[in-house]
Each structure stands twice: as structure tokens, then as C-alpha cells.
User: What shape does this take?
Amino acid sequence: MSDTILEVRNICKDFPGVRALEDVSFDLKRGEVHILLGENGAGKSTLMKVLTGVYHPEKGEIFLNGKEVRFETPRDAQLMRIAIIFQEFNLAPNLTVAQNIYLGREPLKRGGLIDRQKLNRDARAILDFLKADIDPSARVEALGVAHQQLVEVAKALSIDSEILIMDEPTATLSEKEINTLFDTIRSLQSRGVSIIYISHRLQEVKLIGNRITVLRDGRTVGTRDAANAELDDLIRMMVGREIKRRRIREKNTARDGFALEVSHLSQGKLLKDISLNVRRGEIVGLAGLVGSGRTELAQAVYGVTRRDAGEVSICGKPVANPTPMKCIRQKMGFISESRKEFGLALNLPIRVNITHAGLRTIFPSGIVDVKKERKIAEEFRKKLRMATPDVERDVKALSGGTQQKVVLAKWLSTDSEFLVFDEPTRGIDVGAKEEIHNMIVDLAERGVGILMISSDLPEVLTLSDRIYVMREGRIVREIDHEGVMQEEVIAYATGGAAT
Amino acid sequence: MKRRFLRQIPMTLPLLFAMVVLFAIFVGPAKYLKLSNIMNVIVQCTSGVGIVALASFLAICSTGVDLSLGGIVSLSGMLTAKLLTWDVPLLSGLREQSPALLLALAVLASIATGALVGSLNGLILSRTNIPSFIITLGTYKICETLSRVIADGTTVRVNGNAAFEFIGGGSLLNVQQIVKQGARQSVRTVGVLPVSVLILFFLYLVFSIVMKRTRFGTYVYAIGGNYDAAELSGIDTRRTRFRAFLLGGMIAAVTGIIMTSRLTAASASNGLGLEFDGIAAAVVGGAAMTGGRSTPWRTLIGAFIISVLRNGFNMIGMSNSLQMIAIGAVLIFVVAVDAARNRR
Assistant: This one.
């Protein structure tokens, strides 16, 4: 039981401008559940993609059963009996459970037709082993999330995997479903399957893990036995003791009047009775884990999604039945998390993107004056120090940091008085990050109310005047900046502290 | 169990039935439900959108769209006519000595042409990132132009070739029907087992099995359902999409042959526009433009809906342009209802 099945040595992986993994090493023992713990962006998922042949590391070795291996494609890893279950499932929803489990490996009858009886029988056998009450001939789209995950597990088992990697498997599951999943993991373990379990939920790691390795900023911080790991110790490893809180802002610039008032807002299972406010000139941080409802809250305020109950006022005026259009007219701006999906028109030049949200105010006549547009864009280019020689470049050619500045400029050109930032500095380099921070502080000093969603705790702590912590669709804590410690925020966000 | 069976009946089948009832009421049941009219609808469907719809379905199911189908119908139909009638020594000699061999040659050459165009579509699709919409728009134009070049500005007539006419106009079983026209009575022969319709059902039967019971079919559905999942499962997505377009080209060529045979003439404009009828039929039948939905049989129902509409509007005496508007409206209606149902 104690022999090592997989060993990873000194893995380095670079992305343009960012070192995602630096000297990462860890080992997996046969039949153990090894937890990879870390904050968002710590490099957990990148490491897993290296292990499954999706990414190729710049440096480092992978040993499987003592032999060095190299994966060129995901198929190679599969052949070595390593299976991965991604967060977004890789199932064809229109095919049946059995078809999905054996996709690409269908049993054939003589004559080349698929042997459906055998297909369903084999699938049934695997599902029975997993104690899953799923009809092999049911379509995957008819299943709930938990059952879809079980189908993924069944698929992994059907290729006789020795190593199963699960990327935040409990992110979308309910309490009951999590317990079922843990039972499944234990029965896999008893079968000799080794499991790498990625998570950032502190409560569950001690329940299911044998050992825990903590990653931070692309490096391995350390490995602990789950049995005698202290929660506080793990939190410190995740956050990093050496990060000193440095307050960028000299003074709290909050003024009278509210930029945002939300009372008793609810939306299905995602948001539960949320009340919060942001004053003019105030920066309010919204902390919490991915999936805790932060983005959902911002989208409900902005009218992207419908809300079931609750009132929202923007800049002092109540907004019923909100739409993004109505919110923009109330001088609200929303700088979304995924700039590629929602924030920018990638195939258009910087100049056009910058004026997109403010067309109505900049060109009231409805006719676009390119000269004026260029002048405005040039101003922002200089002010935000965008890394581009001119504003005629297509946005897709820019680096992540510069793209983020374009999104920022887009909203600055609208004279917004209330801005929501959703992960304003995710995936961008340190220099650009600081400039964006300065820009946000600048805005607050000019009286703009700011709600900042961020998984980057130092960012929340250094910028915010106040912090709300969210967990499972609720606001579990409101903290004035002065008294807060990073560990406290993490503890509330992960449920490590009683609320 | 009974519930499940009911749910498997596509909602388009009652729609088709309702349309037939409506037209029967408007046109008059005696005239509309006459055997000759029913067979007329079926044969028209076969030599028109019926078989092409199957090719459209294949392309759409694998997340593409094939606009070249109309061009392939035109080109293959033209090629068949030309090969059967061309006055060059080799072909004339063959026509004298062994007409059956010439016919086989013409049919095979047409299908091979369809396969060639289809594989060209598939090859470009699997080697580049060009969307199938653009690729097939290009090959459509190429086929249409080649067809016009062969036609040389005229209609190519195929006269007095009974064996060839049998493909599109023959029937394995005929019944005599008495037709009353005023005081006069005459006897008309109605084919109830037309060869072309048998070809249609044979093709649908084969592809129904292919889609359901072979790896190729499963992979087409998998690609349409979740492209990344298909790729990560080790499916050769390029080869699968290539094959879907190759088969589509061959299927369209069959329509070209049947159409020329039925009309005993080929004109370059024959078949043009069928690519959109095919897409409409597939979509009405339940296909999603994002792929992975519907079946060959459902597509056939879609094709019949369009043919019944055409024929019914004709019998009411509706003008051609009004027909197009009505068919467009029905298409949007069916898809809207389907979308609303899927949203639940």
C-alpha cells in the first residue's frame, strides 16, 4: 500500500508573462487520496493539465511506477491509465449514459454494428459497482449534476484507471450528494485506485484526504498528513505568512449618500436574503470562494439575471426590473470577470472598444465622430499607460493586463458613479495590477462608489474600506478593514470559522 | 412504458397529419386524398427535398452545414444527361452496343462526382478552420458553374431511354384509377411503388441504422453534442466530419440522377435551392444547428411537411411567392415551438 505510483519532480510551466508553476514536486501513493489545496490561481488546475497531457511543462519530470513518462496528448495519459474529471464535465448530453462511458471504445458485433446489449450491460456493471442508480440507456442531459459526475467516474473506471484526478468535484454538489461522492471515493480507494483531489474547501479535505499538499503562487508550500494537520496551519500555508498587508490608501474617502443599496435580495438557491450597501467614494470588497455567489450577486444587481425578491437602489434611485441598459443610465458600470466573453469585442480596435459603453453620452447625435473617438482613446491610452503604440490595434492582440485596462477605460468614458469590478486583476502581471489598483483608488477619491469582487485576498485587504464575506449565497460577515486579518476572511469564506 | 413510447413520437408527426387534414378540408377530400395526388406528393418529395434532406441532416448533426448540395444535384443530374446523350465516338458507340453499360457508367460517374465534391468539402473542413458554411458556399458556386458549362446554355434532353426513365418515373406496382372529368371518364395508371421512392426509403433505412448502430453514427452525435468531449475521448473528429460531408455529396448526387430521370431532361437550374429546403426539412424535423439532434426518420417527416405544404398550396392555387412566404413562416413557427418546449 505504501509504494509510490506517481511522482512529480520540479515541474515548471510558463504562460506568456506569467510563471504558472515553479519547481512543483509531489508524490502520490497507491490507494491514497491526496488533496491539492490552494487558493484560486495557485496553480492546481495547471498542474493537473500537465499531468494529463493537456499542457507540456518547460521543465521537470513525471515518474509513473518509477519510470519516467512524457504525455504529448490527453490520449497518452489515458493509455497510462490516468483519468481526469474536469469541473466542466466532458460528456455529450445528447448521448446515453452507456454511450458516454464507452465513447470511442464501443464494443462491436461481427459485421461492424455496435453491440448495444453488451454496451448497456457493461455500463450497468460499472454503475452497479459505484452503487449508482442510473439507467445506462438514459440520456445524460436528463441527469442531475451529481449523476453526471458519477457517469464521469464510471467513464474513468471503464478505462481501468489507476489514477483518478478530480478537479473540485464538490463545487456544484449538495450536502447529500457530497456524502455519496465521498462514499464513491472510498470504494474506489478500496479498489486500489489512487486519487488526486483538488479543492479549496477546508472542511472537506480532512474528511476525505490521506495527505494534503498546499500550493501557493505556483509553488508547493508543503505536504501534511491529513490526520494531524491543523486547520489554522493549512490556512497559513494557503495564504502565506510573509505577505504583509500594506494599505495603499491613505484615508477612507467615503462620502454621504449611497452608490448602491441592496436589501433582502434573493435568487433561487444562489442568493439568499442579501443586504449590503456601498457609499459614494467607498471601496467595498466582496470576498468569498468561487461559487459563493459573488458574481451572481453582481449580475442580479446589473440585471443580467432576474431576481426573485429584494430591492436595489443605484445612486439613490430604486431600480425595479433592472436591465444592463437601465443600470447604465443610472450611472452604474460593470467590469466583468471574463473580459473575453463579456467585456470586449476582440476583433475591433481599442478605440472602438473604449467608447462602446458610452456611445450614447459621447455622441448624443448618434453619429460616431472618429476623430473625437480617437482623441478620447488616446487620452486613456496615456492615462492608463497601455502597452500599445496606438489605439488602432485590435484588442485580441493585446496582453491580458492591457485588455483589462481597455475594459476599465470603457467604463471610465461613461462618467459612471458606481462601478462593480469582478476580479479586476485576474491573470495579469504585477505591474499592470498596480496601475489598475491606483486607478481604482483614484476613482474612489473622485467620489465613485466601488464594489470589488476578488479572490485575491491581499488585493481585497489593501484596497477595501469595508469587506463583505460571502459563503453559499449568503453574506456571512461584514468587516471593517482595520480589524481584519487575512486568515479571518478565509476562515469565514471556507466555513472554518463559526458564523 | 406507454408514456415513454408516446414521448418518442416526434411532435412533427401530428403536425404533418393536421396539415393533411386541413388541406383535405380546404381542397376537398375527394380531390386532395385521391391516390394519384398522394403518390404525387411522395414522388415530388423524393425527387426534390426528400433525399437531399438526409445529406443536410448529416452535415448539421456534425455541427456543420452543407450549402453545396443544390449545386451537386445540378451537376450530377447534368452529368448523367450529358453522358447518356453526348455525341462523341466513344459514348455513341457504347450507346449503340451496350446501353445498360452506358447507363451504369453515367450513374456511377454522377455519384463519384458527388463523392468528389463532398470529399473536397470534408477535406478543406478537416484541414483548415474555415467554417463549412463558407466552404460549401464556394463549392456550390463551382458545381453550379460546371453544370452551366456542360449545359452550354441549353436543356439537355434524354429521350427514349426507357431504362433510365424507370429510375425516376417507373413503378414496381401500378393500379388503374378511373378519372372523371365532367362527363368523360378515362383510366389513369398510378404507380404505387415508385422506384425512386424505394430508393429513398432504402437510403433512410440504411442511414437510420448507420446513425444508431455504428461507431460513425455515434461519433457524429458525440461531435454535435460536445465537440471537446468527443476529442478527449479519442474520437477522430476530423475524419468523422470528413465522412459526413463525403456521404452527403453522394446522397445529393442520387437526387440529381432521379431528378433528371423524372424530367427526362437536365437544366443547370435543376436542384438549385434544394440546399435550403434540405436545411429547412432537417430543422423542421428537429435538428439543432448546433448539432447532435434529430434522426434520419425525423428528417424525413420534416421533408414531407415541406412537400405537403408545397403541394397543398399549389392545389389551393396559391402563387409561388406566397408559398415561399408561407413555408418560411411554418419553419420559424416549428422551430420557435420547439425552442419554447426545450426551455420548459
